[in-house]
UniProtKB/TrEMBL annotation:
<dbReference type="InterPro" id="IPR036950">
    <property type="entry name" value="PBP_transglycosylase"/>
</dbReference>
<dbReference type="InterPro" id="IPR001460">
    <property type="entry name" value="PCN-bd_Tpept"/>
</dbReference>
<keyword id="KW-0511">Multifunctional enzyme</keyword>
<comment type="function">
    <text>Cell wall formation. Synthesis of cross-linked peptidoglycan from the lipid intermediates. The enzyme has a penicillin-insensitive transglycosylase N-terminal domain (formation of linear glycan strands) and a penicillin-sensitive transpeptidase C-terminal domain (cross-linking of the peptide subunits).</text>
</comment>
<feature type="domain" description="Penicillin-binding protein transpeptidase">
    <location>
        <begin position="387"/>
        <end position="629"/>
    </location>
</feature>
<keyword id="KW-0472">Membrane</keyword>
<keyword id="KW-0121">Carboxypeptidase</keyword>
<keyword id="KW-0573">Peptidoglycan synthesis</keyword>
<keyword id="KW-0812">Transmembrane</keyword>
<keyword id="KW-0808">Transferase</keyword>
<keyword id="KW-1133">Transmembrane helix</keyword>
<keyword id="KW-0328">Glycosyltransferase</keyword>
<feature type="compositionally biased region" description="Low complexity">
    <location>
        <begin position="770"/>
        <end position="781"/>
    </location>
</feature>
<comment type="pathway">
    <text>Glycan biosynthesis.</text>
</comment>
<keyword id="KW-0133">Cell shape</keyword>
<keyword id="KW-0645">Protease</keyword>
<keyword id="KW-0961">Cell wall biogenesis/degradation</keyword>
Length: 793
């Protein structure tokens, strides 16, 4: 067949393909119209009521309706004001004539190309959205779907509605959009929209975003910065310049391309704008704002999720498919944004459990311990960072939370304590391995065998302790024991304990033995570790961490009251035995340096390979505190281990927190019966016998190989040059490049780092799925070292 005929045939196939697609869309619309007539005919009264409501709501509006002005207030445990925030972050309302033309052009190019042609609802746009979705499914692409909401419909959602996935919601949104178009001009609608749309990090409206990210006036923005800001509103959590700067740049470039194609900028302007590097320039904070920064971000997140809960949103952490995860993430983001705007601009009062004295002590402990690390990134953020969370064991509420070191830069927005996910090292062992096994018959005195493992981790210097009590193995963080017990338990069973405590970033790749030593794909947050250890202290009962006790609206109506529910994760006796074992960590093990002088305490160190992350997690009867130390971009830090900086921070804070409190001993665990002890002893003897038999067989095999080798040597020169050389198969030489075989380093508690440790991890809400495709432990300008929910929650 000739090339000409092939092209002609291909063209016919292409036409036929598009004919089929168009026919499907037409048929679908016809079916929808018929279905709508049949179905909605029974809802005519309801639809008419929604139309009347839309008319009334828009008619009752005036310009002040679109100017967020009420203040959101946060109070500490004693009812004292901590901070205040307006929905516009104290920004100025911008009239249409003062909005740069490029800003309008940029937002139209990406959000609503037919803005000046439609009457509030773009029916053709809805068809295009259906078509794009069909094509993306056919091509199995990820980015081909489009939304059908116009800017006017988005404004209606921002001002009048709370997002819901129902047909009634969409119908009323359309009615509101039509009414807005009748009442206001296009320019006025654009003005309202740009002053209310969310730009992430608490910035509502273009003036707040401009000053918040670039610390300049709107008129001073160049076209690249303008497109950069316009990239955010579509999905603020995904295009957040602080936590996902690469995503923001990618969308900025798309907007610039659209502006060029629309004739709003030239090819040369497009080229120059895409080459421009974006540098955030965020305003400095007062000393009070620096201390309260971590409180604000966490409190607003807890309060926003509380309002979502009131709306009936069901938080999820794990999903059966990527499609389910994506759908959940979109619904989460939409409602989160709406509830946060409602919170910031609705005059709400948030009453928390934050203890400001403890907050200051925790911040000081971090700042003082790390004051010698002065290196900063380009944006002024300290490279060496820390995060910590403290929970009141009596109530279960968070009393202090610090997301990083105190500093001048407003790039400190990221709260590493709940938004960042890092490798936990051996600090995960009590939650993942030991307490579960204590439920299954192990005790602190159970004898375990520290020996060389064929396919497992090696100990430092390739030495092994042999038969030792489990208590000793935990106290000295012996990796071979954790590996063996986890192998016996199985990763599936162990990880379920973490999932039961809402650890948000458990991935498919975590179902390996490496997680027993802290080798996760993404990692854990300080908040998760604190709540997990608090569950051990609380006799195995888990309580979802929060600092919000109640929320009151502008009319003094209580709209939310927290009531922490307890969920059994570990058996009481197992939790108490684990606590008892961890007191030995403080007395004679890797946590000796953190031991409190006059208060019984229990804890565990954690250190990852190459000393990139250090942890100390522990508790008394009064408080549980988890501390992480490391760099936002994971890098080896000399002398960083769980027993150094993290332990120093933990001890400094906990000593201050317990000042004046009476000494309280931990509750005892039940003693085992003689029958159970005899049964356990019998099992140990059988195990020892099997080990001896296996050793005899191994020795016989070795003797045979030695004999054959000697016979071979005798046929040459009668000696062996390698008699004194170690067998490479028995050395630790190969472990250096094998992440599944970390070295045990005694008090340094070096575990398995695993995961994506050489890339920054971008923070997100822990109750939302991670949709970024990257890790989730974010630095303020991508300078970070996961998500969560996500984000997912």
């Amino acid at each position: 067949m000739s090339t000409k005929k092939k092209k002609k045939r291909k063209k016919k196939q292409h036409r036929f393909f598009w004919f089929v697609i168009k026919l499907q869309i037409v048929l679908m619309l016809v079916v929808l119209a018929g279905f709508g007539y049949y179905y909605f005919g029974g809802y005519a009264d309801q639809i008419q009521q929604m139309r009347r409501e839309a008319v009334q709501e828009v008619s009752a509006s005036d310009d002040s309706t679109f100017i967020p002005s009420q203040t959101c207030s946060v109070f500490d445990k004693d009812g004292k004001l901590i901070s205040e925030r307006r929905g516009d972050k104290n920004a100025q309302y911008v009239k249409y004539e003062d909005i740069p033309k490029n800003f309008v052009a940029a937002i139209i190019s990406i959000e609503d190309k037919k803005f000046y042609q439609h009457n509030g609802v773009d029916l053709k746009g809805l068809v295009r959205a259906v078509k794009a979705t069909v094509m993306s499914k056919l091509k199995k692409s990820q980015g081909g779907t489009q939304g059908g909401s116009t800017i006017t419909m988005q404004l209606a959602k921002l001002i009048y509605m709370q997002p819901k996935q129902t047909w009634q919601y969409k119908v009323k949104q359309m009615f509101l959009a039509w009414e807005l178009e009748k009442r206001y001009s296009k320019d006025k609608i654009m003005e309202f929209y740009l002053n209310n749309v969310y730009f992430a990090n608490g910035y509502y409206g273009i003036d707040a975003a401009c000053h918040g990210y670039f610390n300049c006036e709107l008129k001073d923005l160049d076209v690249s910065q303008t497109a950069y800001l316009c990239a955010i509103p579509n999905r603020p959590s995904n295009y957040d310049p602080v936590t996902h700067p690469d995503n923001t740049i990618t969308r900025r470039n798309l907007i610039l391309k659209n502006m060029r194609d629309d004739g709003k900028i030239s090819q040369e302007e497009y080229y120059e704008a895409t080459k421009e590097e974006i540098a955030l320039n965020r305003p400095k904070k007062s000393d009070t704002e620096k201390i309260n920064s971590s409180i604000d971000t966490y409190t607003y997140d807890c309060a926003t999720r509380a309002l979502m809960e009131q709306e009936g949103f069901q938080f999820k952490y794990y999903f059966d498919s990527d499609k389910e995860k994506k759908s959940y993430g979109e619904a989460y983001d939409e409602l989160y944004s709406a509830c946060q705007k409602k919170l910031f601009s609705g005059g709400y009062k948030i009453y928390t459990t934050i203890d400001m004295e403890k907050q200051k002590e925790l911040q000081s402990a971090i700042d003082d311990t790390l004051k010698g690390f002065k290196d900063k990134s380009k944006d002024g953020t300290y490279k060496m960072q820390a995060a910590a969370v403290s929970i009141d064991n009596n109530s279960g509420y968070v009393v202090a939370i610090v997301g990083g070191r105190k500093q001048d830069s407003d790039n400190y927005t990221l709260n590493r304590a709940y938004q960042s996910y890092r490798q936990p090292g051996s600090s995960i062992k009590p939650l993942l391995v030991y307490t579960p096994q204590l439920e299954r018959g192990y005790t602190p005195d159970t004898v375990v065998d520290d020996h060389k493992l064929k396919d497992g981790p090696s100990n430092a210097n390739n030495t092994y302790a042999g038969k030792i009590p489990l208590r000793y193995a935990v106290a000295h963080s012996i990796n071979t024991i954790a590996w063996q017990l986890y192998d016996e338990l199985t990763p599936k069973a162990g990880l379920q304990y973490l999932k039961n405590m809402n650890f948000a970033q458990i991935k498919d790749g975590d179902y390996t033995l490496a997680t027993s030593l802290g080798g996760f794909t993404k990692g854990v947050s300080s908040l998760e570790m604190a709540s997990g250890y608090a569950a051990v202290e609380n006799d195995g009962l888990y309580r979802e961490p929060t600092c919000v006790k109640s929320i009151v609206d502008s009319d003094e109506n209580v709209v939310y009251t927290s009531s922490l529910t307890e969920k059994t994760v570990y058996k009481q006796d197992a939790a108490r035995m684990m606590t008892d074992i961890m007191t030995s960590v403080m007395d004679s093990g890797t946590g000796r340096s953190a031991k409190l002088a006059d208060m019984p305490c229990a804890g565990k160190t954690g250190t990852t390979n190459d000393h990139k992350d250090g942890w100390f997690c522990g508790f008394t009867r009064y408080y549980t505190t988890a501390v992480w130390v490391g760099c936002d971009y994971p890098k080896a830090i000399s002398n960083l281990s769980g027993s150094t900086y993290p332990a120093q921070i933990w001890k400094a804070y906990m000593s201050a927190a317990h000042e004046g409190l009476s000494s309280l001993d931990f509750l005892p665990y039940a003693q085992l019966s003689d029958d159970f002890k005899n049964q356990q002893k019998q099992e140990e003897e059988e195990h020892d016998k099997m080990r001896e038999e296996n050793q005899i067989e191994e020795n016989q095999t070795d003797d045979q190989q030695t004999s054959e080798s000697q016979q071979k040597d005798n046929t040459t020169d009668g000696s062996s040059e390698n008699d004194n050389q170690p067998d490479n198969n028995d050395s630790n030489a190969g472990d250096q490049n094998n992440n599944s075989k970390p070295e045990h380093s005694g008090d340094n508690d070096s575990g398995e780092s695993g995961g994506n440790t050489d890339t920054p991890e971008n923070g997100e809400n822990t109750n939302k799925p991670d949709n970024s495709g990257t890790t989730d432990n974010s630095g303020d300008t991508g300078e970070s070292g996961d998500t969560g929910g996500g984000n997912v929650q």
